[in-house]
Structures are given as structure tokens and as C-alpha cells.
Amino acid sequence: AQVAEWKAEGLTIGLTPTMGALHEGHMSLMERAVKECDRVVTSVFVNPIQFGPNEDYDNYPRDLEHDAAIAESKGVNVVFHPEPEEMYPKNYNTYVVMETLTDTLCGAKRPGHFRGVCTVVNKLFNIVQPDKAFFGQKDAQQLAIIMRMVKDLNFDIEIVGCPIIREADGLAKSSRNTYLSEDERQAALVLSRSLKIGKQLVEDGEKSAKAIKDAITAEINKEPLARIDYVDVVDFETITPVDEIKGTTLVAIAVYIGKTRLIDNFIA
Ligand code: PAF
Predict the structure, then answer these.
(1) What's the mean pLDDT in 154-163?
(2) 3-state DSSP call for residue 125?
(3) pLDDT for position 86
(4) Residue 91 dihedral angles phi and psi, to the nearest 5°
(5) Confidence at residue 79, expressed as pLDDT on a 0 to 100 scale
């Protein structure tokens, strides 16, 4: 009803979809949305269907009061915070499944994850009817998938990808950083450090995906608390592995630090 009222007034609507536990990464999306749209909706919904059975759905950090205060301080007009039973009532039966793009990187490691993401993002787009929606490049595969979905399904929505926001020491901001102990927090720096090495190689003219992957892998393997989930070099649009850096190429990693799985990337 609120969106309909705004639309009747000719105002543009921005949406920043989140799962809450808001940090500076989310804040940068809100700031951009507030700058580019007349009204901004932030959704805060820990989407159960994008978590696997052994993942952290139950433990995922939740603090609506904190999130609402942050959203308000950034000039967001509405926080949309549905309950799981409202989004997926009894007999809920419709899902959005993408044929490719979802079976590599995080999709290979988290079966069903992107089905859950595509489904909830579809629902959020239909509920909020935004003109623009803002997503972080930290979840680069998710961003590529949503861009593809919007094209494929003819959504009249502009998808805006926003840069990764990092801590002063390089760690990419993530709601999951709160899981890290002090030692793990230190060890987690290996993600950004290893990517920096990869990026430097690219800047120095290295084209071989294998050489870049090997250098990143070697750096991560030096850290005893780290366990590689994947180190991959893929075409950003199709998310398929490439042998050579050309066009828009995504260099993406997922690394367990203790029990916490962290992701990071750069676009070459
Ligand atoms: O990136 C996230 O926080 C989630 O995957 C999203 C896009 C809000 C869908 O639940």
C-alpha cells in the first residue's frame, strides 16, 4: 500500500534486500539507494530456503532493533521485515530455478542455495516493485545470477552492483565475521591478502587462470586455520571457468576459517 501511494505520486523506489545483521557493506547499498531513488525500502529477512540443512540458519545473527536504527540513520523510508510463515505459508509450492550459473562456485558447494535466493528475490521484487535494486559485489555470483534473472524474466528493474566494503585491514565486511574468534579474525586476513596477490599478477599482465589460482591457493595454504572450499576464475556473465583472463573475469574464493565459511573476490 505504501509503495502504491509513492508510485501514485510519481516517486521512484529503491530496494536494498538484506538478511539483516547490517554492517557498513549494507550501509553503502542504502546510501547509494537513497542517493539514486526518491524512496527506499530495505528488506530484512533471513530466508530459510537459501540455507542448506547443515548450514547456519538457526544461528544467523538477528537484531531487528539494531538494523532498523541503522536503516533509519541512512535515510531508508521503510524496513520490510516479513515472518517466514508470511513468505512461505502452508502449501507454498513455487520456486525459481536457474538452469546454469548456479552450479559452480557457491552453487556447487551449497546445493539449492541459489534456488532459495532467486525465489525470495522474485518475491521481494513483486512485493516491493522497485525501480532499482542494489546488491553487493561481495556476493558476485549472486549478483550475476540476479542480473540474468531480471533479463530472462523481463523485470523492469535496474540492478545496481555496489563495490565490496572492507575493514581497515582488508577483511571484506560480512555478517558472518561475527562468528570469528580473535585468532580466526586474524587468520581471515588470508582471503584479502591472497586476492591482492592474484590481482597484482593480473595487473602485471598474467593471463593464465591456473597461474593466478596457484598463487592464491599457495598463499591460503600458508594459513593453518584456513581450509579452501574453492579458488576459481570464471567469466562474470556466465560463471563458467575460463583458462585465460579476458573480458570481465571474476576471481572468487571461499575459505573456511575454523567452522566459518567466508567468501571474497575481485573482478579482473
Ligand atoms: O545477499 C543476501 O543477503 C541475500 O542472499 C538476499 C539477496 C537478501 C536474499 O535473501
Answers:
(1) 98
(2) helix
(3) 98
(4) 75, 10
(5) 98
Ligand 1 centroid from CA 200, angstroms: 30
113 is catalytic: no
CA dihedral of 252, 260, 136, 75, whole degrees rounded to 10: -170
C-alpha cell at 173: 565486511
* Mean pLDDT, range 110-129, rounded to an integer: 98
What contacts 24+ positions apart, CB below 8 Å, involve 57-61?
59/179, 60/19, 60/21, 60/175, 61/20, 61/21, 61/175, 61/178
Query: What is the phi/psi pair of residue 94, to 5°?
Result: -120, 130
Residue of 15, 16, 18 to test ligand 1 pocket, by largest number of atoms within 8 Å of CB? 18
Classified as helix, coil or strand, 227 is strand
Phi and psi of 78, rounded to 5°? -140, 135
Tell me the HSE value of 266 on the side-chain side, using a 13 A CA sphere. 20
Taking Cα atoms as reference points, which of 34, 1, 9 lies closest to residue 132? Answer: 34
For ligand 1, mutation pick of 80, 142, 160 (most atoms within 8 Å of CB): 142
φ, ψ at 256 (rounded to 5°): -80, 130
Give distance in angstroms: CA of 243 to centre of ligand 1. 30
* CB contact set of 180 (below 8 Å; sequence gap of 6+): 188, 257, 258, 260
Confidence of residue 7 (pLDDT cuts 50, 70, 90): very high
Phi and psi of 17, rounded to 5°?
Answer: -75, 130
Q: Name the pTM for this structure.
A: 0.97
How much is the pLDDT for 150? 98
